Amino acid sequence: GENVEQHPSTLSVQEGDSAVIKCTYSDSASNYFPWYKQELGKRPQLIIDIRSNVGEKKDQRIAVTLNKTAKHFSLHITETQPEDSAVYFCAAPANRGGADGLTFGKGTHLIIQP
Amino acid sequence: KAGVTQTPRYLIKTRGQQVTLSCSPISGHRSVSWYQQTPGQGLQFLFEYFSETQRNKGNFPGRFSGRQFSNSRSEMNVSTLELGDSALYLCASSPGLANTGELFFGEGSRLTVL
Question: Are B41 and A106 in contact (CB < 8 Å)?
Fold first, then answer.
C-alpha cells in the first residue's frame, strides 16, 4: 500500500510549548521518512529526516521518532517560536507495483499562539 | 548553485485547453518529481522521472503526462483541462531517487482553469 496518514490536520499551541505531529504508513518495506516545512507562499523545505536503522534523530529544537513495528513516526518541536508557524508534511516511500515513489501526508497546519 | 526553476509561475487557461509546465532541476540532479498541491489535499504525487525514464506514476488520469530530457529538464502536460485541475504544480529534484534523500522544490506553477 502507499497510504500515509497524518494527524492532526491543525494544531494550535502556545509559544514556548511543544508540538507533536504523527504519521502512519502502510508499506513495511519503507526505510526513509522525511519531514517538510512549508511557510505561507513558499516552497516546501526539508527540516529533518530519519532512516529505518535508527529510532530517533534530533536537530536542535526538532526531533523525529520512528516505530517500525507500529509503522508510525512523529515530529516533535520543543520551545515553539512564532517562526515555527507553517504547514508540516510527513512522507514515506511507497511501493507502486514494484516501483517506489514518495508519498506525502496531507499536512498539519501548526499555529503558534503568542 | 541555481535552485529548481519552474516556468511559467502563473497561468490561466479555460476548460478543454491543454497546458505544458517546465521544470529545470538543480545541476547534477537526475530525478524530477511532480506534485499537485491543492488546499486540504496536501501534496499529491503525479510522477517521477529519473534519467529520462518514468519511474512511477500517481493516481491521476491519462490526461496528465510528462517527460524528461537528456539534460534532466522535465515537462508535464495536462490535456483537456477541467476546473478541478486548478492547483499549484510543484516539481522537485534530487540527486538520486526521490525516496532516498532530500527533495529540492521549485516555487511552483499556479494554474487556474476557468
Answer: yes
* Omega before residue B25 within 30° of 0, cis: no
- State the pLDDT at residue B8: 98
Count of all residues that appear for chain B in the document: 114
State which residues of chain A have pLDDT below 50: 1, 97-98
A102 vs B58: CB contact, 8 Å cut-off? no
CB atoms within 10 A of CB B113: 19
pLDDT digits (tens, 9 = 90+) for A5-28: 999 999 999 999 999 999 999 888
B54 contacts: CB under 8 Å, gap ≥ 6? B47, B48, B66, B68
End-to-end CA distance of chain B: 37
The shortest C-alpha distance from B50 to chain A (Å) reads 11
Residue keyed to cell 492532526: A8
Residue ranges of E strands in chain B: 5-7, 10-13, 19-24, 31-38, 42-50, 53-57, 64-68, 74-78, 87-94, 104-105, 109-113
β-strand partners of A104: A91
DSSP strand pairing (A10-14 vs A108-113) = parallel
Q: How far apart are CA A70 and CA A24, in angstroms?
A: 8
